Amino acid sequence: MKGITYILLAVSLVFSTCKKVEVENDFLISLIETSPSSIVEFEENINIRISYNHAQGFLGFSDPDYLSLEVKDSRLSNPDYYHLFPLSPPQSDVSISGEILIEVDAPFIFGNGNTETLTFTIAIQDKDKNWSNKVTTDLITVNK
Predict the structure, then answer these.
(1) d(Cα 66, Cα 126) in Å, to the nearest integer?
(2) Residues 52-63: pLDDT tens digits?
(3) Which end of the chain, N or C, is more open, meaning fewer C-beta atoms within 10 Å of its C-beta?
(4) In what order do the strands lie in the sheet with 80-82?
(5) Per-residue pLDDT tens for 84-143?
């Protein structure tokens, strides 16, 4: 009986010292600001300011044909992709953080109404082909 007690005690001790290991995402973006929140179609661009933080500095590509910035208009089924130039020196492994200003050309109304609303969802791919988290802008109103 003492043997079983010792075994149960040992097993409970092992399980009580186990901790869940959480993997932190070392590549995060966050929305800082979207302006303006209401525009007249074809007349004003939308400015979206995001911040980024990458532990290894693997953002941007020297190849201008590689599109690593994803911007999706909520009214459309597919996102648009853009080139993001390198944000750290080549072959470096340094932590970087900063801000990116994304300027979206003047949106327009797709339907026949006088007003439409939309959001933009943004993500960035790093050099290891990992995507950041997605951020979504506040509601933007487009008027005729």
Answers:
(1) 11
(2) 999 998 899 999
(3) N
(4) 80-82, 69-73, 120-124, 135-136
(5) 999 888 777 889 999 999 999 999 999 899 999 999 999 999 999 999 999 999 999 999
Residue 73's CATH number? 2.60.40.10
Residue 47 makes CB contacts below 8 A (sequence gap 6+) with 33, 34, 35, 101, 102, 103, 104
- The dihedral over CA atoms of 131, 136, 102, 92, expressed in degrees to the nearest 10, equals -30
The Cα 132–Cα 120 span in angstroms is: 15
- State the residue for tokens 């994803």: 70
For residue 69, the Cα-to-chain-centroid distance in whole angstroms is 9
Q: How far apart are CA 43 and CA 128, in angstroms?
A: 38
pTM (whole model) above 0.85: no
Question: Residue 116 is which amino acid?
Answer: E
